[in-house]
Amino acid sequence: MPQPLAYRMRPQRIEDVVGQQHLVGPGKIIARMVQAKMLSSMILYGPPGTGKTSIASAIAGSTKYAFRKLNAATDSKKDLQVVAEEAKMSGTVILLLDEIHRLDKTKQDFLLPHLENGRIILIGATTENPYMSINPAIRSRTQIFEVKPLTADDIKTAIERALTDTTNGLGDTDIKLESAAETFLTTATNGDLRSALNGLELAAKSTNPDANGTINLTLPIIEECVQKKAFSHDKDGDAHYDVISAFQKSIRGSDTDAALHYLARLVTAGDLPSIARRLTVIAYEDIGLANPPACARVVESVTAAQRLGFPEARIPLADAVIELCLSPKSNSGMMAIDAAMADIAKGHYGDIPAHLKDAHYKGAAGLGHGVGYAYPHNFKNDWVKQQYLPDKIKDAQYYVPKQNGKFETALGQQYDRLRSAQHQNKH
């Protein structure tokens, strides 16, 4: 049985990797490692189908090292021993270890010395957050890189490459992919290239050619083959982003029914990643300090939805949307950090006051570091007046409180009291 299209189209050179240019683009960290042949073990984490295996395959192809692939959950210590023996006999082996977050202690203890001596270059792949799920012993011996969902343009590039590649792709077949179908294929799979290529291959193999021998792939055919409907997509690819935009603006504008309508479009399209990301952004961007408990509940709802999957995921998502719509709103947190970053971009920062500098080393006092620092907990109400900002911007104010909820109203009152005390008799 022939290998799937997604497997055949895996890149053999780092230059052929689709997307992930923050890692493999010219001058970026993994490209530099490959160019210098100074590879170190790494963990790649991100959603399925975004190129973790492709990057590992391309690294091996570009460096000409042997490439082996195992699964931490299903392959045994004996399988690791076979790879280690190969590395001992023939030199460096690149080992892609899928689901590395499920590596047990026995396998981990076996791997560690081989990582230390460099015989095995480990590339761990996981959809889990490695800072939470990977054992510290492995984590400390690897570099951690986030692999991001592919953009529609990335997937379009890969699809067009697959349609023209006569060696590994579908280039030997006369296929006409309708424009609307291509656009849908690039957006409906939510950055999952494997799903896009699987859908394309299924459509091509299951569609009869016309009288001229051409396989015409239309929007309904692609919809059927990826099992999603184009409710939130149009022929230009803009409607998907229009729905996301309308979704956020409806919540921001406190229109519950409109927000539920746009949520329903996204649920119908099966777009859980976009919903999860957008709801989390909305919670902290638009509700923020006006109602922090709502922000925390949104994170819980999104986590529950991701664990449940559709169709049940729609329930916690709907609860979260309704609460966000009816919650008081505030964007003061976002505005505050943006104002602080804008100041830095303009060169407004200055030297950290000497009394705030690190004093936990010999000779610090001789440099004046930490000298004169007043420890707030030694004073009444655990507060003492002293300067924290650099001299150059000592009077800067970034946070401007709003009064759109009890929580931020109270925060604002405390902020005003402390700021007034801090700057009292300054001028």
TrEMBL record:
<dbReference type="InterPro" id="IPR051314">
    <property type="entry name" value="AAA_ATPase_RarA/MGS1/WRNIP1"/>
</dbReference>
<dbReference type="InterPro" id="IPR008921">
    <property type="entry name" value="DNA_pol3_clamp-load_cplx_C"/>
</dbReference>
<comment type="similarity">
    <text>Belongs to the AAA ATPase family. RarA/MGS1/WRNIP1 subfamily.</text>
</comment>
<dbReference type="GO" id="GO:0016887">
    <property type="term" value="F:ATP hydrolysis activity"/>
</dbReference>
<dbReference type="InterPro" id="IPR032423">
    <property type="entry name" value="AAA_assoc_2"/>
</dbReference>
<protein>
    <recommendedName>
        <fullName>Replication-associated recombination protein A</fullName>
    </recommendedName>
</protein>
<dbReference type="GO" id="GO:0017116">
    <property type="term" value="F:single-stranded DNA helicase activity"/>
</dbReference>
<dbReference type="Pfam" id="PF00004">
    <property type="entry name" value="AAA"/>
</dbReference>
<dbReference type="InterPro" id="IPR003959">
    <property type="entry name" value="ATPase_AAA_core"/>
</dbReference>
<dbReference type="GO" id="GO:0003677">
    <property type="term" value="F:DNA binding"/>
</dbReference>
<dbReference type="InterPro" id="IPR003593">
    <property type="entry name" value="AAA+_ATPase"/>
</dbReference>
<dbReference type="GO" id="GO:0005524">
    <property type="term" value="F:ATP binding"/>
</dbReference>
<dbReference type="GO" id="GO:0008047">
    <property type="term" value="F:enzyme activator activity"/>
</dbReference>
<keyword id="KW-0547">Nucleotide-binding</keyword>
<feature type="domain" description="AAA+ ATPase">
    <location>
        <begin position="38"/>
        <end position="150"/>
    </location>
</feature>
<dbReference type="InterPro" id="IPR027417">
    <property type="entry name" value="P-loop_NTPase"/>
</dbReference>
<dbReference type="InterPro" id="IPR021886">
    <property type="entry name" value="MgsA_C"/>
</dbReference>
<keyword id="KW-0067">ATP-binding</keyword>
<dbReference type="Pfam" id="PF16193">
    <property type="entry name" value="AAA_assoc_2"/>
</dbReference>
<dbReference type="GO" id="GO:0000731">
    <property type="term" value="P:DNA synthesis involved in DNA repair"/>
</dbReference>
<dbReference type="Pfam" id="PF12002">
    <property type="entry name" value="MgsA_C"/>
</dbReference>
<dbReference type="GO" id="GO:0006261">
    <property type="term" value="P:DNA-templated DNA replication"/>
</dbReference>
